[in-house]
C-alpha cells in the first residue's frame, strides 16, 4: 500500500467554473490563467479541461513551451513578457503573445528581424505599482510599438490591486485611469481578474482573466464568500495512520506545544508540510475525519499532523481525512492558517500524487 496522501483533481469542476465565469461576463472573451502549474493542479490536464477558454495566460516561456509540446494550440499570453532578448525568437516561434511592461522589452522587440511578427499587450500601471508603464508614458509607448514592423497587433492590460475588496476606492480609481487612457487608442482591453469579473461588470471589457475562481476558491478577501457558487477542484486528502489514547497532561508533537486537557483519543494523519500542508497552521484549524470536523492539535510535522478525536470515539487507522476541498473549503483552512488559498493550492508538493477524475459538478 502506498502512502495515502492525495490531491484529487475534479476536471468537471474546472469546466463548470469556467462556464460560471462566462455567464458572469457574457460579452467578454475569457483568458484562463493557468500559471504556476495550473495553481498546483497540473497545467496540462487543467488546459485540457478548460478547452472552451478563448486563450490561456502563463508566467513564463517555459510554461508556454510545456503547453505547446502537449499540443495546446490556443493563444498563449506570457504575463511577464520575456526576460531576455534571446527569449523573443522562441516566443515568436511558438506564437506566444507578450506582455510589454518595461523599456528594455521595447528595445528587444525593435532589434528583432523585421520578419518576426508579435502580438503584444501593453501593461499600464494604474495603481498596483508592480509592473507596467505609468499612465503618462503609456501613449508614447503605444505609438512606439505601433511603429514597429514586428508588432502586428496590440492590446491594453492593467491589473487591480484591491478587486477582492469591492468597496475599496482604489478599484474605481484604477478603472477610470485605465478607461480614459484606452479611449485614446482603441484596441482590445483586459482589466478584470476573478474578483472583478464577479463584482465589477464595468471592468469586463473585451477580455477577462479568471484565475483562482476557476479552481473553485473564492477570490474575495478573507471571510467573504464568492458572489456565485464555485465548485472546489482540488480535494487534498489522506487517512488516519494511527490513533492513540492519551492521558490528561500528555503533550502532543514537537515542542510539546499542545497538552491534552483530559483523557482523550488523538489521531495521526499521513500529511505534513512536506506535502504542502501549512506548518504554521495553528491548533484548532479544521480537518475532516469521516466527513466530520475535528481540530488540528500540536505542531505540523514534515510528514504527519495530529487531530483531536474526542468527538469521534469510533475512528480507527484507515479512516478518510480531508485537509481541504470537498466539504472543507480551502479558503477556510487558509484563513485559519493566516494565509490565502492561492498559496495552499500552489504549495501542494510534487510528492503528492494528483489523481484526475470527473465528478458531478454542473
Plain-language structure description:
This protein is an alpha/beta fold. The protein contains eleven helices and 18 strands. The longest helix is centred in the N-terminal third of the chain and has 14 residues, at 11-24. The chain is elongated and about 75 Å long. The model has no long low-confidence stretch (mean pLDDT 97).
The spatial strand order of the largest sheet comes to 2-3-4-5-6-7-8-9
Q: Work out the helicity level.
A: 25-40%
Give the number of DSSP strands.
18
Which percent range describes the beta-strand content? 15-25%
The N- to C-terminal Cα distance equals 34 Å
Rg (CA only) = 23 Å
Supply the CATH class of the largest domain. Alpha Beta
User: Stretches where pLDDT falls below 50 for ≥5 residues?
Assistant: none
Question: Which term fits the overall shape?
Answer: elongated
Order of helices and strands: EHEHHEHEHEHEHEHEHEEEEEEEEEHHE
Average per-residue pLDDT, rounded, comes to: 97
Give me the CATH superfamily of the largest domain: Alanine racemase
Amino acid at each position: 500500500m502506498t502512502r495515502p496522501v492525495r490531491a484529487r483533481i475534479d476536471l468537471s469542476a474546472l469546466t463548470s467554473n469556467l462556464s460560471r465565469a462566462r455567464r458572469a461576463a457574457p460579452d467578454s472573451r475569457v483568458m484562463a490563467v493557468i500559471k504556476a502549474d495550473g495553481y498546483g493542479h497540473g497545467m496540462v490536464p487543467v488546459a485540457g479541461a478548460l478547452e472552451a477558454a478563448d486563450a490561456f495566460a502563463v508566467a513564463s516561456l517555459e510554461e508556454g513551451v510545456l503547453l505547446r509540446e502537449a499540443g495546446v494550440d490556443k493563444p498563449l499570453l506570457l504575463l511577464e513578457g520575456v526576460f531576455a532578448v534571446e527569449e523573443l525568437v522562441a516566443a515568436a516561434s511558438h506564437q506566444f503573445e507578450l506582455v510589454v511592461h518595461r523599456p528594455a522589452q521595447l528595445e528587444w522587440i525593435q532589434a528583432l528581424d523585421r520578419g518576426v511578427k508579435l502580438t503584444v499587450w501593453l501593461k499600464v500601471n494604474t495603481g498596483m505599482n508592480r509592473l507596467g508603464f505609468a499612465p503618462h508614458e503609456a501613449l508614447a509607448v503605444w505609438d512606439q510599438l505601433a511603429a514597429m514592423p514586428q508588432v502586428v497587433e496590440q492590446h491594453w492590460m492593467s491589473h487591480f490591486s484591491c478587486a477582492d475588496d469591492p468597496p475599496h476606492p482604489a478599484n474605481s480609481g484604477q478603472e477610470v485611469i485605465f478607461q480614459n487612457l484606452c479611449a485614446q487608442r482603441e484596441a482590445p482591453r483586459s482589466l478584470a481578474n476573478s474578483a472583478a469579473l464577479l463584482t465589477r461588470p464595468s471592468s469586463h471589457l473585451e477580455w477577462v482573466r479568471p484565475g483562482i475562481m476557476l479552481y473553485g476558491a473564492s477570490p474575495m478577501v478573507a471571510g467573504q464568500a464568492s458572489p456565485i457558487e464555485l465548485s472546489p477542484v482540488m480535494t487534498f486528502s489522506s487517512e488516519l495512520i494511527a490513533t492513540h489514547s492519551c492521558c490528561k497532561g500528555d503533550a502532543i508533537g514537537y515542542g510539546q506545544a499542545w497538552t491534552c486537557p483530559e483523557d482523550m483519543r488523538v489521531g495521526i494523519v499521513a500529511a505534513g508540510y512536506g506535502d504542502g500542508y501549512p506548518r504554521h497552521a495553528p491548533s484548532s484549524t479544521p480537518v475532516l475525519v469521516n466527513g466530520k470536523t475535528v481540530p488540528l492539535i500540536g505542531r505540523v510535522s514534515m510528514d504527519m499532523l495530529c487531530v483531536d478525536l474526542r468527538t469521534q470515539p469510533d475512528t480507527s487507522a484507515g479512516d478518510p481525512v480531508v485537509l481541504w476541498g470537498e466539504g472543507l473549503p480551502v479558503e477556510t483552512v487558509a484563513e485559519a492558517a493566516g494565509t490565502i488559498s492561492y498559496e495552499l493550492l500552489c504549495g501542494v508538493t510534487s510528492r503528492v500524487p494528483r489523481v484526475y477524475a470527473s465528478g458531478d459538478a454542473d
